[in-house]
Amino acid sequence: MKLFKKSESTEKSKIGPPSNESRRSFLLKLGLGGMLAGLAGFGFQSFRSLIPNVLYEPPQKFKIGIPSLLAEGVTFLEDKRLYVFKEGKSFYAISGACTHLGCTVKYTKLNQPKQVEIDGGKKTVPFEFHCPCHGSKFYADGTNYAGPAPRPLHWYKVEMSPDDGQLVVNLNDEVDQNFRLTV
Ligand code: FES
Q1: Fewest C-beta in 10 Å: which of 4, 76, 130, 174?
Q2: Rounded to an integer, what distance in angstroms lies between the CA atom of residue 5 and that of residue 45?
């Protein structure tokens, strides 16, 4: 009889209302959980805002017209910052972006063609590219020879579109300085 009474009182203490201490601990955990969830949500939103929903990149491959309609000599495509050259039936394209910090280099016709040595070979240079920002200079083939530019100007592949016979420049396809498309 005595034993039964003791266990009854133990049960009562187990299922009774929670003590102040356990209630405080529960509320503390709840608060911490809420705060962590809020921080995680904020972090995710901040990270997500760095990624645009739509990526806009200008096309890297584009048509520049029918070969016969392109002017002999040099044509500057301002929006692409690209110099396109036509020498009779041959075509090639040189980037107008300086390899130092990316300013647009200027095509500069020389009063007199000059003889220069590039990679051990002599070449006649009728024009150059000059950068207005920090004074880098490039020979006609894009070779850098003065100023802080560390590399030659980039050359890009020119090809003929099979659809309509227009010239196509591909900025994803770099070629060397001997490249020519002959049509
Ligand atoms: S950007 Fe051309 S020399 Fe600096």
Answers
A1: 4
A2: 59
